[in-house]
Protein 1
Amino acid sequence: MTTWLHDTFPGHEVNLAFARGLPADTFFASLREQNREPLAHGEADGWAWAVHDMIDEEDDGYEEVDYGRLCPQGAEVVVFVTEPCSAKAHGPHFAYYRDGRTTLFFSFEDFRQQRVGDNPDHLSAELFAAGVIGPAAECEEWKDGVHDCYEHGDADELRLVAAIAGAFGLPSPPLAALPLASPPLVAAQPVAAVAAVGGTRPVVAPGTYAVHARGIDVTELAAACADAGYPARTQGGSGGWAWVTWDATAVRGGEVSQLAAFLTGFRYDERFGGPDRVETVFLAGTPACACPNGRHYSIQHCEDHPVQFQNCRGGFERTYFNVGRGRETQRHGDLLVRELLEAGIVGRETPAYEADPGFNDDGAVTMRIIADHFGLPATT
């Protein structure tokens, strides 16, 4: 997409914007008011579209377009920022505005890790169905030391654009010129309904921190934690998982969750017999952090209120988020997106919350989903 638009409009770093719910002439005039004369424009299937320069080169501040001003009540605007930083070769950005607000925003570079806005899961069902998010969408071949993910980067980008265009029914010659009909690399698989989420016993007791680990036994896990200065209160093992727990008043949750990540990385490779041997799941039976930083999933949480769920491999957090009251939308990673969508916890439509305002208020449904996904034994 970036290459095609760049070649079509040489010398320009362009955005491709669509609008519906307002007259096309009003949309084009609003762009001109912000000094963005459309380089190409059109109208089809209820959408107006325009290709325009990303920045106004006469503006020393390099201000970007304020699309919220172009999107009054009842209107929608979809934007592809094709070259947000060409000097550093960053991937495109995508944004969806509705009623003047940013409903969804993400970068093509890390959309599988984080999406933001009023509803980061607005397109998650479509993206999952297209095979561009979810556990099967991640390329694992890079681990062989030979594979270069850039080799399929263009194809991945086109599949993402195709999924977005299909979800919104976007027209326009720029998109029509792209080979968007290519089939998804990964086919989405049906999943069990939320009713199948089993168990009533809490996975982690209130006021408790727990780390589950597989790839090592409970003796190795407990010894490593004790050596790091965090002797466990209780410990056990079942189903291939070892686990340890702490009283939340006795240790700082942020430090324990960090240890859970360290256990899977290079710091413990020699101790545990090689890289990528260990996987951990950290769970907090404490309330979600209410401090300002704690409300933002991509910002370091305070030490006393760690994120309530974290899964780590290779020394890194693959996915983490807080649970209950819709907090799952503010997550890093899509490892559990299939289950969360099926349960109605996230998505464009969440009828479970509408039917019962108290649905999953304490996050118990999400905790059971986590436990069932990983096959975690209860620590209570």
Protein 2
Amino acid sequence: MAKKKSANIKLVLNQLVSDIFEKNDNQALNYKQVSAKLNLNDQESRDTILEILKDGKASGVYLEPEKGKFKLKDLQTFIIGHVDMTADGSAYIIPDDEFEKDIRVAPRKLKNALHGDTVKVYVFAKKNGSKRDGEVIEIIKRAKSDFTGVIKISDRFAFVIADDKKMMHDIFVPLADILDARNGQRVLVNLTDWPEGAKNPIGVVKHVLGNQGENNTEMNAILAQYGFPLSFPPQVEKEANAIPEEIPAKEIVNRKDFRKVLTFTIDPADAKDFDDAISYQKLANGNHEIGVHIADVSHYVIQGTDLDKEAYSRATSVYLVDRVIPMLPERLSNGVCSLRPHEDKLCFAAVFELDEQANIVNEWYGRTVIHSDRRFSYEEAQEVIESKQGDYAKEIEKLNELAYILRDRKFKNGAISFESTEVKFKLDEFGKPIGVYVKERKDAHKLIEDYMLLANRKVAEFIAKKVKGEKKLTFVYRVHDSPNMETLNTFATFASRFGYKINTKSDKEIAKSLNYLMADVEGKKEQNILTSLAIRSMAKAIYTTKKTSHYGLAFEYYTHFTSPIRRYPDVMAHRLLQGYLDGGKSADAEFYEVASAHSSAMEKRAAEAERASIKYKQAEYLENNIGSNYKGIISGVTEWGMYVEIEENKCEGMIRLRDISDDFYVLDEKNYCIVGQRKKKKYQLGDEVMIRVKKVDLSKRQIDFTLIPD
């Protein structure tokens, strides 16, 4: 134990010694000078420092330019980054500095760091140009301390096997800390300690999620796994419940009154949180006034309140297969803020005067009060569009006509249309999937989308052009970078196997050829694969205060303004816009950049939770179909197997290479295929194959297939 303690002291001293050289511009110093600067003047410390310097010289960390004096060979021997765990228990540290290369850390050098943690790493000197290795010397911040998993209880203790595949350690739980959990139940456990030298961390059960396999248990486990709370804190609910539904007369006086102008909403049939409404009136000059009225969440959610802090923390609503976990308490999301029909509601609006060619003649931004005349479902609005009959048929027809012009203009300017087949589950009363159906996007969906895009684009443009140069106003933009050309070229090579040519000469040519591909592939078996690969070849859209264009939409300016009930960036956009309309100064850019980065991270996490719920329902759906045969399409290839998506229900599973018995198959990564070593038979991404459902593991959300030979 003393040996271990002395090694730890030496490791800490190693860092302190290195810091001295860095702070002194890497000036050559002897061990006595280093000791003095560290205020360590006892002989034992001096000897240890001399030993560190000599060992460092031998390993290539330090140079000895003159006898007894040392300096660092490379200044930066310590790097801060994030842990990316691998399947064998080792990790790569992804440096915060994007110009630094990843550092490999062996399992025994991780110092109990877990996946995603922010750590400080001591980087060893390179040997023969090999990859850089290092050792974690400090865990700066845990990525998470809560884990979902299955609890195993014995007579003397319990432990939790985490659901997270990158959590390599079981979590020890004293029997006093298991709440009322029973053996084999799914729980949420919080890490409380990890004693030095202990193999496993210690935790306490925070929440008993329930029995494995029960729908509610599994959906709550997914939410908890991705860090979304299962309920609102009492104080937040109390604040929400204290907000009155009645609108004071003095509030209406301060707003533009649209209550006598035709206004309606178009949403999914089962929606309750109506974010947006459209108002329409034909003007005396023959032009069309179209108002995009958005729930005025920022009027009710005041910055700095507990309600606001909770909304900031969540950053987004989460849409699982069978439920919505709202960003705001139900009192607001489905009540006070929701633009329900036949009720006066407060909104923040972008109002446009359009001519017959959908050119903007005038625009206005500000707070409004509306009274929705009708709540349409998408299906009802589509029926009106197709039959030209029903409530407000003439007005909806004109709105649709103008939306078509806006849409065509967008694509001519280089926007990309990614249309993939969306399959939804039919669920029984217990949440079990009993069937699948394809969700179609028709004109009613696109009409609403086009007016939301118009509002988002013009609000961003209004702010960006209000003040130019260094004094530009801080705002939250939604940006999308142009694609990485190497990734896009790889996709173009793959698409060419299906007969599609991607022209990569310019952004407009890329968009044109991608749109041609998307239109041509619609309804074909390879549609989902080519669409998902095309999307993967694009950069990811993020929130930021640093304005750049939106590549996928071909908009120079873009923000998210239209969904504040379910997205926090929209709440920020409303607050900033109102502040500038009132003549306020530019807001704190650093604060909003941090908030934007947080929102981007939470959006990604919500998408992962949604995908996990789909995977679970796919596994649950096929659990009753083990042994059934299906036609599928190869959707992914890896070193250990190939993924196949069943054509009729879009469920995805894996055929493991070891289960294909007619040859020994290996991955050809460059050509997206696996190849038999003797017979040279190929299974290519996009190929059609017949499969049999072999096994379903609900707890891991995994489906295994076997290949049915030709």
Protein 3
Amino acid sequence: MLLSASDQDAGKDGVTDDEVVTAAESLGEELAAAKESSSEFAFTTMVMQCNEAIGDETGIDYGSVCGADDDGCC
């Protein structure tokens, strides 16, 4: 149901599309701030851990979709 035509309806897991988008935007903002204040190693490690956690929850391998060397992802 993610990003479906009806943003107000909750999916089978009880989470609305708007809540998913809000959480993703928040994660993006936190990662951008962390990138500015962390060493490259620490930031890359954090992104890899996020990718793994997202993959565990969604079944999507974000590491293969968005590589750590791709500046356009974060």
Protein 4
Amino acid sequence: MWPFTDLSQPTKGIVASVASLIISVLLYLVTVSLVGQENIIQGLYWWFNILWVQVLLMAPGLYDGISLWQDVLPVVEEQPLSLNREGRQNNL
């Protein structure tokens, strides 16, 4: 909304919506002219399937898709594993 901050409502909403529509149509026309309509439809089906599988696996916790695009701190800090008994501290 930064280019339209000085406008009042509802003018701001109308102008932002029309600008978004014009930009979207222009990008669509450029994409169709570069790749063709058939490839766009196939690409949309492919992306839908990939994203649906990720959501399906994230729901029960089988896939951690959030950490792919966000820095998420681990719930439990991982400790290095060591089989060396001399490295243990004795707190008795």
